[in-house]
Design a protein that fits this description.
The structure is a single chain. By secondary structure, the chain is mainly β. The protein is built from no helices and 34 strands. A hairpin with a 5-residue loop joins strand 33 and strand 34.
Length: about 290
């Protein structure tokens, strides 16, 4: 029989690694937070790795965040063999000049989904990779904030098998992905649900700086809030339709005074394109010298 693991009290390793394995489901409830932040000043947090044969349902936070003043974070790796992943708060942020960790969610199984019910945080070169064999949902409070140079990748229909949730990506109003802002180039944002069974993608606010935003759908794309690449290219490709609402503006203009040109904008759909949001590739004003295309 499958053995399940339930965490109902805090786990804190003080900087050591935490490795949770179960043949069945892994669940955290109530005060069952999982933390590997170092107890030492400027110390390195421990790796957190969670592997389940069934579902992973974490109603409490998971953190490898760095400690004061310049502590390094570590990676958060969550994998299922045949089950969905539901999380509310994942933090792999370094503190001060400390390095950020990677966050990886990998939900396997024909009907395996990922539901993001809160913030996923990292910084520095930390990356975020969400991969589900079926669908991925961002709740209204679900967001990714990768404030550095690391890429953000969101992949539904990771194995083209056709699950029971549509094998698409649904970002509910209020959710967002920020791959980085500031004065240096940040990571790219990739949303994809390609393949014969790939579902539709609903995109809310996506922001990066001097890097690309790519949305590739095996069905349609609906842009409901602003996409801003800060000088990077934006590329939308859909097998059927691409639509945007009035608030779904798409902007590739570089940051003012960055000296960078605007990014290219490419939109391809096999059936139809209906855009109510503005498309902006205008040049930025650099040192008052006027726009640079």
């Amino acid at each position: 029989t499958n053995q399940n693991l339930v965490i109902n009290a805090a786990l804190n390793s003080g900087g050591g690694a935490i490795d949770l394995d179960a043949a069945g489901n892994i669940t955290s409830i109530g005060a069952g937070s999982i933390t590997s932040t170092s107890n030492q000043a400027d110390g390195t947090s421990g790796l957190i790795e969670i592997d389940a044969g069934g579902q992973v349902n974490l109603a409490a936070s998971v953190s490898t965040a760095g400690n004061a003043t310049n502590g390094d974070a570590n990676n958060i790796l969550i994998t299922t063999v045949n089950g969905s992943i539901n999380v509310v708060a994942l933090d792999a942020s370094g503190l001060g000049t400390g390095a950020g960790g990677d966050v990886s969610l990998d939900a396997n199984g024909v009907n395996a989904d990922i539901t993001l019910g809160g913030a996923v945080l990292t910084n520095g070169a930390g990356t975020v990779n969400l991969s589900a064999q079926d669908a991925i949902v961002f709740d209204a409070t679900g967001n990714v904030n990768a404030a550095g140079t690391g890429n953000v990748s969101v992949t539904a229909n990771a194995i083209d098998a056709g699950g029971d949730s549509g094998a698409g990506i649904n970002m509910v109003a209020g959710s967002f992905i920020n791959a980085g802002t500031g004065t240096v180039a940040s990571g790219l944002i990739l949303l994809q649900s390609t393949g014969t069974n790939g579902g539709s993608i609903v995109a809310q606010q996506l922001t990066t700086r001097s890097n690309s935003i790519q949305i590739n759908s095996g069905a349609g794309i609906n842009v409901q809030q602003a996409l801003a690449s800060g000088g990077g290219a934006v590329d939308l490709d859909a097998v059927t339709t691409i639509n945007s609402s009035a608030t779904g503006t798409i902007t590739t203009t570089a940051a003012a005074n960055s000296g960078a040109a605007s990014g290219s904008l490419t939109i391809n759909a096999s059936t139809s394109i209906d855009l109510d949001g503005n498309l902006v590739t205008a040049g930025a004003n650099h040192n008052g010298a006027g726009a640079t295309a």
